[in-house]
Amino acid sequence: MISSSEKHSELVTAIKEIVIQSRTAISRNINSQIVLTYWNIGKLIIEKENTSNSTEKSSRQLIIELSKELTLTIGKGFSRSNLTYMRLFYLNYPDGVTVSHQLSWGHYYELLKIEDVMERRFYENQIHNENWSIREFRRNKATALFQRLALSKDKEGILELSKKGQKAERDSDLIKDPYVLEFLNIPEKENYSEKQLEQKIIENLQQFLLELGKGFAFIGRQQRITLNNKHFYVDLVFYHRVLKCFVLIDLKINEVEHSDIGQMNLYLNYFEIEQNVEGDNPPIGIILTAEKDDIFVEYAIRGITNKIFVSKYQLYLPEKKELQERIKNIVDKE
Q1: pLDDT band per the 50, 70, 90 thresholds, residue 6
Q2: CB 122 within 8 A of CB 98
Q3: What residues have CB less than 8 Å from 243, skipping those under 6 apart?
Q4: 245, 216 in Cβ contact below 8 A?
Q5: Rg, Å, the chain Cα set
Q6: What does the alpha-carbon distance between residue 223 and residue 52 come to, in Å, rounded to a whole number?
Q7: What is the 3-state secondary structure (H, E, C) of 57-116?
Q8: 154 Cβ partners below 8 Å, 6+ apart?
Q9: 102 touches 130 (CB < 8 A)
Q10: Tell me, what's the pLDDT at 5?
Q11: In this predicted model, which residue has the larger pLDDT, 219 or 326?
């Protein structure tokens, strides 16, 4: 006999779907209204400044007085800091039509802290592309994601990155140099083994996937390959859903040797022949190393048809000002 709950299971599922969609729509509408409200407040502040020929000092005083009066008459949400950013919001997004309501006020609050227009546009696009939460956005901004991606590009590539964000359309789009693994909380000068590094990554897998970027699915660790009665082990194996290929990662705590690159080449050949199924593209190999000699890597990889990338990792946040200066030099030089 079919139970009452089983009879109505399809109906319950359908109703749940409607409720979830409705709640999502309500949340988006509320978010859109908040964003639009704050943009209009910023507009009013700027218009007031323009009609009264405000100076920097009088503008600052206007914000202070507005904060006190609005907090008294309306309530929370109108601190001096919030009003300052509402003003900046209108200044940086003067065309209200272009303001995306997919982003929350919290996203815009963080975006407005970025002075460089190219960098701000990149993060705005990337929030769209990868549906970042505010927390994820803050982390990527703190680790200078834009600068790390931009350093491998020419001026045209940097401008394109700013306009559209980073999308995984080619294997090279997956690669960062360096990767920032500050979330592992390993002191910079502490001695650790490759096994310990791997274990730390597994313990912080969600953060590591965020650093890798959108589209990665974790397959396993220490994946065994047996050839001629010899066992080899790939440290970390992922599958990229967009590029439809395996991504093999080997971890090295010292400088990369030519034997490490040869070993990765073996892994890739094995996976392409033994693991790939119909529809899979050739696998990609990433060697993450604490030290890297670019010229050595160039010669070691030259002539290899498999896609092997060697990238540094670091256990601390990068010096963002230094990276920004290097990006500026690339753009100015070209």
Answers
A1: low
A2: no
A3: 168, 171, 174, 215, 281, 284
A4: no
A5: 25
A6: 69
A7: HHHHHHHHHHHHHHHHHCCCCCCHHHHHHHHHHHHHCCCHHHCCCCCCHHHHHHHCCCCC
A8: 330, 334
A9: no
A10: 53
A11: 219
pLDDT band at 321 (very low <50, low <70, confident <90, very high): confident
Nearest CA to 221 out of 126, 269, 208 is that of 208
* Alpha carbon distance 142, 135 (integer Å): 11
Other beta carbons less than 10 A from residue 142's beta carbon: 13
Q: Which of 26-35, 214-223, 227-236 is predicted with the least confidence, judged by mean pLDDT?
A: 26-35
pLDDT of res. 101: 58
**pTM, 2 dp:** 0.78
Residue 264, classified by CB atoms within 10 Å of its CB into exposed (0-12), middle (13-18) or buried (19+), is buried
Local confidence band at 160 (pLDDT 50, 70, 90 cut-offs): confident
pLDDT in tens, 73-88: 888 888 999 999 999 9
φ, ψ of residue 11 in degrees (nearest 5): -65, -45
Name the helix (H) or strand (E) containing 248: strand 245-255
- Ranges of CATH 3.40.1350.10 domains, the chain: 179-317
pLDDT (0 to 100) of residue 1: 46
pLDDT for position 25:
65
Q: Evaluate whether 40 touches 32 at the Cβ level (below 8 Å).
A: no
Q: Which two tokens stand for residue 24?
A: 């999502």
- CA–CA distance, 116 with 123 (Å, rounded to integer): 11
Provide the H-helix boundaries in the chain: 4-7, 9-51, 56-73, 80-92, 105-111, 117-130, 134-142, 145-150, 155-164, 194-203, 205-212, 258-270, 294-301, 320-333
DSSP β-bridge partners for residue 223: 234
Q: How many CB atoms lie within 10 A of CB 95?
A: 6
> Tokens representing 68?
């006190």
> 179-317 — its CATH code?
3.40.1350.10
The average confidence (pLDDT) of the chain is: 87
Do 182 and 317 meet the contact criterion of CB atoms below 8 Å apart?
yes
| Whole-angstrom distance, CA of residue 110 vs CA of residue 159 | 21
